[in-house]
Specification:
Layout (H helix, E strand, L loop, with lengths): L2 E6 L6 H14 L3 E6 L10 H16 L6 E3 L2 H5 L5 H11 L6 E6 H4 L8 H4 L3 E6 L11 H5 L3 E4 L9 H9 L10 H9 L6
């Protein structure tokens, strides 16, 4: 099975995330692409109730795609504890008969910090990174040192689309226009549950 993982806080999941998922499935023909909302992000504030809202919103956003190959996984919710990517990837290798390495979608902003991740030296041997640009002045040469350290990665040509979750939460809170930024079902869920009001 050709497996791909897209892990993140998804707070909230938005249209740039969905665009990346569609692009990856179309280009690589993965047998399965797992969206994995972090239960307890290691580097961010943790709110248990919000974690479950993020999971629900991801499921709502993906429901419109109607693609059996794309799933939202609650693997990190079932494990509880901090959502370390290394532990999640190890668990996925036990659950699936993976062809080659697990592919892992990541933005350049997070990839720059990859060596600070939990057990990064072991993680790098388990996955192939599919890196999407998150800035306009992008230079692939900046990342050559990671190749030298044994990281497998490829950069994607999908044009940079800057949707900031922080800015999106602010727009929702202030009742500003979010058209083309977020799935309508997700926005309705946010408003119904009073998320991001504080």
């Amino acid at each position: 099975m050709k497996l791909c993982v897209f892990q993140g806080t998804f707070n909230p999941i938005h249209n740039a995330h969905i665009r990346v998922v569609r692009y990856a499935i179309d280009k690589y023909g993965f047998d399965k692409l797992l969206i994995i909302p972090a239960y307890k992000p290691p580097h961010k504030d943790y709110d248990g109730n919000m974690s479950y809202h993020r999971l629900k919103m991801a499921k709502l956003a993906l429901s419109d795609l109607n693609n059996q190959k794309i799933e939202v996984s609650d693997i990190e919710f079932r494990r509880e504890g901090k959502s370390y990517t290394y532990l999640t990837i190890c668990e996925l290798y036990k659950q699936y008969d993976v062809e080659g390495k697990i592919n892992f979608i990541i933005g350049t902003d997070a990839f720059k910090q990859i060596e600070t991740w939990y057990k990064a030296d072991k993680l790098k041997n388990l996955i192939n990174f599919i890196v999407f640009k998150r800035e306009n002045n992008f230079s692939p040469l900046e990342y050559n040192y990671l190749k030298d350290k044994g990281y497998d990665f490829d950069f994607e040509d999908l044009p940079f689309e800057d949707i900031s979750s922080t800015e999106l939460r602010k727009r929702i809170k202030e009742n500003e226009n979010t058209e083309n930024l977020i799935n309508e079902k997700v926005k309705e869920y946010i408003l119904k549950n009073g998320l991001y009001e504080n």
